[in-house]
Amino acid sequence: MAYHQLLDATVNYLEGERSHGRRHVNVNPEKLSVLLRPLPKHSAKPIAETACDSMADLRAQALTCTRCEHLVASRKQVVFGVGNEAADILFVGEAPGADEDAQGEPFVGAAGGLLTKMLKAMDLAREDVYIANILKCRPDTPNQRSGNRAPTAEEMTTCSPWLHRQIDFIQPKVIVALGKVAVGGLLEMENAPITKMRGTWQTYRGIPLMPTFHPAYLLHKETMQNKRAVWEDLLAVMEKTGLPISDKQRGYFLNH
Asked: Please, what sign has the CA dihedral across residues 49, 162, 185, 77?
């Protein structure tokens, strides 16, 4: 703004001098150098520095985010997150799929249906927890009619601060990271070895974090062993948050 004001004032001054018949003007070189400086590029304020006093403010800003032009061009809507904003348990996935992009809510497709069943087995509903993703927009799939792709490292670096701010507001007792992308995005790891990390407590900024398999993985490899592995992870989460566990729940997916 100051640059344009100075430029306008200079033009007005020169036009005034010309109207009085003057053809030569003495200019201070230092003042002229200000006008010769390149106009600074304006960039979006870092997400971490955006002013917001509530989750509602954060949501409003995220819904208009244009930081990833290629995702903005292909998305139907931003998928911010859903659930109890004071939840003890936060579930984090990787990115919206086609169903999520269409409905604006995370985990509403086939994997979302399985996540809902997992919550029910814990005697919880979607409204009792908070559900979000590392990426708020569906990764674009150029020249591909269907299917999904994993977020790139650059996309996660650009978008994950929205999630970090969400976590600051929610302050959950436990975070459940669903799949290697969620684990890597939260713990800032490349190629997180989910098969090795699954079931072992990690820490995100002082908050216990449980890595486990993504529901989509269970849909593709729906073995009793994999189901039991994920259920043991959820049992650990229930114990950590003080949820009651029945004998029936402890026996889920055990081979008899």
From this structure: negative
Task: Encode the chain (256 residues) as per-residue pLDDT tens digits.
Answer: 334 444 445 555 566 666 667 776 666 555 455 455 544 433 455 555 567 889 999 999 999 999 999 999 999 999 999 999 999 999 999 999 999 999 999 999 999 999 999 999 999 999 999 999 999 999 988 776 667 888 999 999 999 999 999 999 999 999 999 999 999 999 999 888 999 999 999 999 999 999 999 999 999 998 999 999 999 999 999 999 999 999 999 999 997 5
Please, what are the domains in the chain?
55-250 (3.40.470.10)
Angular region, 175: left φ>0, alpha ψ -120 to 50, beta rest: beta
